[in-house]
Amino acid sequence: MKRNIVNIGIVGFGTVGSGLVSILLDPKSELSKKLGFDLRIKRIADKDTTRDRGITLPPGLLTHDVSTIVEDPEIDIVVELVGGTTFAKDIILKAIKAGKQVVTANKALLALEGNEVFEAAGKMGVDVGFEASVAGGIPIIKVMKEGLVANRIQSVYGIINGTANFILSKMTEEGASFNDVLAEAQRLGYAEADPTFDVEGVDSAHKLAILASLAFGIPLSYHSQYVEGISRITPLDIAFASEFGYKIKLLGIAKSDGHEVELRVHPTMLPRDQMLAKVDGVFNALYIESDAVGPTMYYGRGAGARPTGSAVLADIVDIARNLRHGITARVPAFGRPANEPFKVRKMSDVTSCYYFRFSVHDKPGVLSKISGVLGQHDISIESVIQKGRKEGGSVPLVILTHEAVEHNVKTALEEIRRLSVVEADAMMIRVEGANGR
Q1: What is the pLDDT of residues 165-224, one digit of tens each?
Q2: Which domains does the chain possess?
Q3: How many helices (H) and strands (E) does the chain have?
Q4: Which of these is catalytic: 42, 89, 207, 249?
Q5: Is 207 one of the catalytic residues?
Q6: What is the pTM of this model?
């Protein structure tokens, strides 16, 4: 006999937890009509039980005791929304051991500890839903796991951090400095007091590890990624990129050639008419190339209480529907076993086009010296912008290259740095989409 109620326990009543609860308790919601049964919040646990979240809860629903959720035999699904990787992992593993289904939005935990979590879930035959861990309200996990199941995914390009995208968008629109726009993002609540995870690419790398496992069936590989943030990007680089016809975005990139996988997060120059380059502000977007469908793109809000709460609820509904029919683990966590024998390619072996900005003496022969070093390392020049003249001072020399190998680029830049005509370390930005790449 099918149950008419599926009970939920929520651990964490912060931004996402509040968004989820507001949707579940919305009197105008048609969720029960869509499902044909009720989702009932049986308990919410949070260390702060007094703060006003603007939501009226039934008496006795909120507690600070997590064990009342994990150990309650009537609770079917445990929703972990506390964040972090220690306490959250403990909650999830205890819930799995108790045979409960789990839903989480915790991308850091999954990226760093997910292999252990999913192994434990597999042994117990329970589901771990994680739609909200990547790109907020965009249902990208379900798309990759089920919607594109007939496809061999070749590459994923993602703008998957709204804070970094907001900063680069404002710098592009206003010509403002990184520090000034970061301060504005903090005032608006888009950036944390400590913005390191967002602006240095760590948050994007957490999400990319998850996307790569979905795309290629490899174990979660956070520590194998190359990660670089946007804090060195200047208005000058944005202006030169525009002169070449490009915009700068912080991208998570996962590519496979069938033998190796590239996993990298870094500022990237994209042709300004490319769809991803047009995604501005705090929005997220993912561009996926696959064999049967071809290119597809997914766009929407990557954060926020209700968009992320909506993604959490999508997982709850999927799992609840399965439970109603006595089914668990119907679809593998990553759409297939995560055991493909792909090797993650070393960043030094990656091939890309490159943008270089040098600060050089304003004198004849400088370009020939620099181009000579590049040529010695199999790096050919596609375009040059040379600004001058500044008597007795330095001027920018900007070069766009054809495809080159990363370790050749790093070696050449080190040699160029030692030239007497060069005044500072070069700025280097990788380029995607050049010449149809």
Answers
A1: 999 999 999 999 999 999 999 999 999 999 999 999 999 999 999 999 999 999 999 999
A2: 5-139+305-324 (3.40.50.720), 145-301 (3.30.360.10), 348-436 (3.30.70.260)
A3: 14, 18
A4: 207
A5: yes
A6: 0.94
